[in-house]
């Protein structure tokens, strides 16, 4: 499998005329295994010992493509009955993506096919579930026609179980102005009152295609959902963040935590905090002291208030394959792990998940020891699943192979019942990605 370089200004999804949801940056180099991809900077081969193996990966479902789903960007979530729910960015009746369920017995059902237009299209985020089993998510495009050459600025939707099927309700369609436009890859956060929080990549202080993005809140009032822009990036100072790709994390006091891909003192991204009324505290700026750069994913927070995340780039200057970091309550950063790339380690890490013992779990988009994913005719690995101890010691749980079990590991992992669940954008038996279970 060959990875070819491309510039992100133009591109297709699944061979159509659509613009890929991650083809939005013009300041860093990217490459793609297939069509939607997002990998940064120079790929040089490391030469350390091969990683550990041993955990068992089970393919729960291999997506066959349209009219079924194709390519999950986010890991599935798991309900109390053992059913998994997730999204695919493509496939479905109109090839605009799906919401799927995989039952505890292994049966897959498409709960909703996005059709574009007023409906959403291209869901790149995962799902959030409430106590009644309703599902909440976002789409990168769709809704209004104000962004992306008429393809839309994205929507927030709800899927509610009904006898004989599921009902979709569009809670808000973004317009690309002060409300934001082009919804991020992060899942929605939900507070104890049922309010929803998320981010957009653009809009806010200037209309699409400009602006640094926003953090927004949706509140249910008098039978309808009301949108509030909590914060528009790039308005307070030159070192403010810009373009949040990940979602947000909430604490018990209503404070909101997240990352921006750009902005900050070095232009390589930030960590921010917003209070309940949207006042920002600038917590950290990447790229100043040779640490990580360009945090694409959101954050996880432990009981002591420490924040954990990843950067797509930076770290070891010979690889610039990204880092995993900890930010304590005083704003001091600790780099927990510097990724080394093929063949000893992963590269370009995704969203982290935290367990009760303080261990971190995640995936890398490429890296690992597989030889069937190539760039410039050189193997770069197809991605991996890893575990970091609280002190940062790494264990490689699984190395992916495009043909065997998948590649383009954009999705992180979900913990459930002692197992890890995730997905791959591509590869697997049908080439359209898989949903997997990994016994940890």
Overall number of strands: 42
| Subunit arrangement of the protein | single chain
**Weakly predicted, low-confidence segments:** 1-53
User: What fold name goes in the CATH topology slot?
Assistant: Neuraminidase
Helical stretch tally = 0
Give the N-to-C terminal Cα separation.
28 Å
- Percent helix range: under 10%
Largest sheet geometry: 5 strands, antiparallel
Q: What would you give as the CATH superfamily?
A: TolB, C-terminal domain
Overall 3D shape: globular
Q: What would you report as the Rg, rounded to the nearest angstrom? A: 20 Å
**pLDDT averaged over residues:** 87
Q: At the first level of CATH, what is the class?
A: Mainly Beta
Strand content: 35-45%
CATH architecture: 6 Propeller
The helix/strand class is mainly beta
Number of domains: 1
């Amino acid at each position: 499998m060959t990875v070819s370089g491309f510039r992100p200004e133009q591109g297709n999804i699944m061979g159509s005329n659509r613009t890929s949801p991650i083809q939005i940056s013009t300041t860093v180099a990217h490459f793609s295994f297939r069509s939607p991809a997002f990998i940064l900077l120079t790929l040089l081969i490391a030469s350390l010992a091969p990683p550990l193996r041993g955990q068992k990966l089970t393919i729960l479902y291999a997506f066959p493509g349209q009219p079924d789903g194709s390519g999950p960007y986010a890991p599935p979530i798991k309900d109390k009955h053992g059913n998994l729910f997730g999204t695919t960015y493509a496939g479905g009746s109109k090839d605009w993506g799906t919401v799927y369920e995989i039952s505890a017995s292994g049966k897959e059902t498409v709960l909703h096919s996005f059709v574009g237009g007023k409906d959403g299209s291209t869901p790149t985020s995962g799902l959030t579930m409430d106590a009644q089993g309703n599902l909440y998510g976002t789409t990168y495009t769709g809704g209004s026609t104000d962004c992306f050459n008429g393809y839309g600025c994205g929507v927030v939707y709800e899927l509610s179980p009904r006898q004989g099927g599921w009902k979709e309700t569009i809670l808000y369609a973004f317009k690309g102005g002060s409300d934001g436009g082009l919804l991020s890859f992060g899942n929605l956060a939900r507070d104890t009152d049922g309010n929803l929080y998320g981010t957009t990549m653009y809009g806010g202080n200037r209309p699409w295609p400009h602006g640094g993005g926003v953090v927004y809140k949706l509140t249910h009032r008098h039978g309808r959902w009301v949108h509030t822009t909590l914060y528009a990036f790039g308005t307070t100072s030159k070192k403010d963040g810009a373009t949040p790709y990940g979602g947000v994390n909430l604490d018990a006091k209503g404070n909101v935590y997240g990352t921006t891909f750009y902005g900050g003192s070095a232009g390589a991204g930030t960590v921010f905090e917003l209070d309940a009324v949207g006042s920002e505290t600038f917590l950290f700026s990447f790229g100043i002291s040779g640490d990580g750069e360009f945090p694409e994913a959101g954050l996880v927070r432990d009981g002591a208030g420490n924040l954990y995340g990843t950067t797509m780039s930076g770290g070891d200057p010979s690889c610039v394959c990204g880092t995993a970091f900890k930010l304590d309550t005083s704003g001091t950063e600790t780099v927990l792990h510097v990724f080394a790339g093929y063949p000893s380690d992963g590269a370009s890490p995704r969203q982290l998940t935290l367990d009760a013992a303080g261990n971190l779990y995640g995936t890398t988009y490429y890296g690992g020891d597989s030889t069937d994913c190539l760039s410039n005719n050189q193997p770069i690995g197809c991605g991996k699943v890893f575990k970091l101890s609280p002190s940062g010691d790494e264990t490689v749980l699984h190395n992916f192979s495009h043909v065997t079990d998948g590649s383009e590991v954009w999705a992180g992992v979900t913990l459930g019942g002692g197992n890890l669940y995730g997905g791959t954008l591509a590869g697997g038996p049908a080439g359209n990605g898989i949903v997997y279970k990994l016994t940890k």
